[in-house]
Every structure is written in C-alpha cells, then in structure tokens.
Amino acid sequence: MTEANNRSYVGIDAIVQTCSKVYPDQLNPTQAASVVKYWLGGSESLDYISIYHNQGNDTSPAHWHYVTFGFTDLHGDGRVHKILSKDEVNPTSGYGFELTFRLRKSAEIGNSVQDIPLWPCKLLQYLAKYVFKTGTQFHAGHHIPFGHVLPNLYSSYGDTRIHDLLITNDRQLKSFRTNLGSVEFLQLVGCFENELEAAQECNVAQIIDLFSTNRRTGGSLLVTDMTRQESCFDIIPNAKQMIREKIDKEGSQLGRVLARCAWNIEPVSANDTSFHSVSSIDLTFDLDAAKIFIKILRTRLSRGKWFIFDSLNDQSICFISTGAKNQGIMVNSIQQIMALGTREAQIMLLPDQIDLCIDRLSHISNLKDEQTLPLKYEVPFHTNTKMFISIVSSKEFSNE
Asked: Which residues pair with 45 in a beta bridge?
C-alpha cells in the first residue's frame, strides 16, 4: 500500500480543522513528518507533528505549539488502529488522544523553519513509541517522571532544570468526535523535580493551577520554558504553604499515576474475565513509584481513600482502604486481594496494615539513588494472605 492510494483523510482532516480554529492564519504549518510511515514499516509511530507559532497572550509568552498526528486513527481503514465495532459504546479514536507541547520562543528567534527547535518532536516520538509498545493511555492528571531523558533531548541547547512532565488538557484545542471515535488533546507541561514531588503529594491539577497564575511558569496557556531557573515555589508567594494546608485539611487529591510498577500472582490466567480472590501477590516498584506509595499511604489510604498505579506494561494496581467509596470495588476486609486476569489487581489495606507498610517502608523516602536496591518486604494479611513488595532499579523495567 502506498500513501497516495486507498487513503481516508477523516482523522487527519478533523485534527487540522480543530487546529485551524486556533490558527486561521497558519493553514499550512511547518510539519515534522516520518520519512517512512509506521504503517509502511517505519520506526517512528507518529505520521506527522505540526508546529504552530503562537503569539501568546497577556499571561503567556510567545511560543511554538507542537501537535501530534497518529495516537488517534488518522485513516479509519485498520492500517494502524483497529476499525471500530458498531457495538462499541463511547468509542475512542485509536488511543483517544493526541499530545501537544508548548515551548517558549526566545525573543531573538525568528519564525522561519530553520528557527524551530526539533528536539520536542523527538520527545513526542519517544512517548509515541512507548504508548504503541505498551498500549498505555495517557490521561489528564498523569505525570511522567522522566529522569535523564528530557535533559538529554534538550542538551544541545544547554542545561535545564526541567526534568519531568505533567499532563493536562490543552487550553485551546478542544476535544471532538468523528465516526472514528472521540479525540482529546493532552498537553505536556515541563516541571522541576520539586514541582513533580508536590504534584505527587497533592495532585497534578493543583500544580497546573499554580503554573497558570504566573507568566514565568507558563501562564494560562502553560508554556514550558526550558531555561527557567526558579520553581513555582520560589516565584509564587506562599505556594508551598497553600498546598501543605490543603493536604493537611483534605488529604491528597492525587488518585492515579503512571509509574514503573508491576504485579504477579500464581497461578495466573490472562484470559480471566471476572475477578477472583488470591492469597498472595507480588508487587514490584521502582524507587520513584515506591516513594509515591509511601506518600499515598499517609495522604490517601490512611484517610479512607483509594489510589491506582497504572503500570508501563498495561497493568493496574488499585489500593483501597476500608472507608473508600467507588464503583467497581471488588475487595473487602475478608477477600483483600482480587485479580482480573493479568491486568487489574485490587488490594484492600486495613488500618493496621497501612501502619505496618508505613513503618517498614518509610526509610525509602530518604533514599537518593538506587545503589541499595533491590529491597523486598512482606506484609502479612489475615489467614495466610500476604503481599510482597520488591523495590528494584528502573532499568529492570524493559519498557523504559
């Protein structure tokens, strides 16, 4: 099959039309296109990345706006994403989202093609390969602890303190629906490590709200400035105190994260279509995920809430406290561990087990590197039911 024949433009046209409402004067934007498309055997998962020049507004500086084409179904003929079944309820197009990124434009830089930084295209293709490999779907409120990856991509332009990413809805590109399914635009917002840690303690939305109040942290359009040297807590008065008071009063509002984690049970059946009770489960976290676990034990589970880890290999771990209220909870104080195939595990932690986990794992919060790993812990439940927690190097997760 060639690109010139047997092609549907439905998905592409829908994205272009959405962008044209924001950029009516840029109907032919600069595009970074895959030389060999993914569906022709190419290594890059996205067909195109359009790059628009945005003048900014009263609160946000001028910037480049990168928009992906390929997470959703561009063609509708099955060459990349499955063709929708007529029986599907509220179907999404492909993975259901396209990613965007807004990069601050230096005042001395022009608007020619040669002036456009292309490293964000590498970032977006990197994330696309991960999504296509694992099937993981991003959502607003997720965060990505990127470590060395983001600074390395940017390194030819200099050093940066922006190491991680928060995910929120794009403030200008609106979601839409076609006969191929629904599409939303998720924006990547760069952040410092301490800003990411704060998002893990409260939630991503609260940090995003802080960013939007100040031009230096991106303003209303959430523009990432890779040269920013001060965190939002240095720039915005009382920001740290406001977040701490809110957590002390309400607990963490962060209910779900994407992290390097996995779970395993024996025996296991990938084809199970209903939950079944198990007596033992092995959980594996990298150090970052383990630190999040410690935080949510204190700020959510001890307050009668629930929390979900979405893993890199399309598994989920749902921790539930006895006071949690949510549809889909299958566990109880007697059947504390339930599994659905190899994809979803639910674990109810009783108050004494929450305290035990905090007591045994609290020292992890002070670990600065992975040299002391691996570590393993056993948490006994009732009647010979057990939870094992292993903390390993991030390199153990092959999808990195």
From this structure: none
Boundaries of domain holding 283: 256-396
Q: Kindly state the DSSP code that residue 224 receives in the 8-state scheme.
A: B
Asked whether the beta carbons of 287 and 368 are under 8 A apart, the reply is no
Instruction: For residue 120, give the 3-state DSSP assignment.
Output: helix
- State both tokens at 308: 């979900």
**DSSP string computed for 198-216:** HHHHS-HHHHHHHHHT-GG
Could you tell me if residue 4 is inside a domain? no
Tokens of 219: 């303003």
209 burial type by CB count under 10 A (0-12 exposed, 13-18 middle, 19+ buried): exposed
CB of 309 within 8 A of CB of 261?
A: yes
Handedness of CA 34, 36, 42, 46 (dihedral sign): positive
Between 323 and 120, the higher pLDDT residue: 120
* Maximum separation of any 2 CA atoms in the chain, in Å: 69
Question: Of 249, 217, 247, nearest to 234 (Cα)?
Answer: 217
How many structural domains comprise the chain?
2
| Environment class of 140 (CB within 10 Å of its CB; exposed 0-12, middle 13-18, buried 19+) | middle
pLDDT for position 99: 98
End residue of a domain, out of 250, 284, 309: 250
Q: Given the structure tokens 């694992």, which residue do they identify?
A: 134
The pLDDT value given to residue 257: 81
- Bond preceding residue 151 cis, omega within 30 of 0: no
Look at 244 and 181; give whichever has higher pLDDT.
Answer: 181
Helix (H, G, I), strand (E, B) or coil at 312: coil
Domain contains 120: yes
Strand duo 386-392 + 375-380: pairing: antiparallel
8-state DSSP, 76: S
Name the H helices within the chain: 10-22, 119-134, 149-154, 193-201, 204-212, 232-235, 239-250, 287-299, 351-361
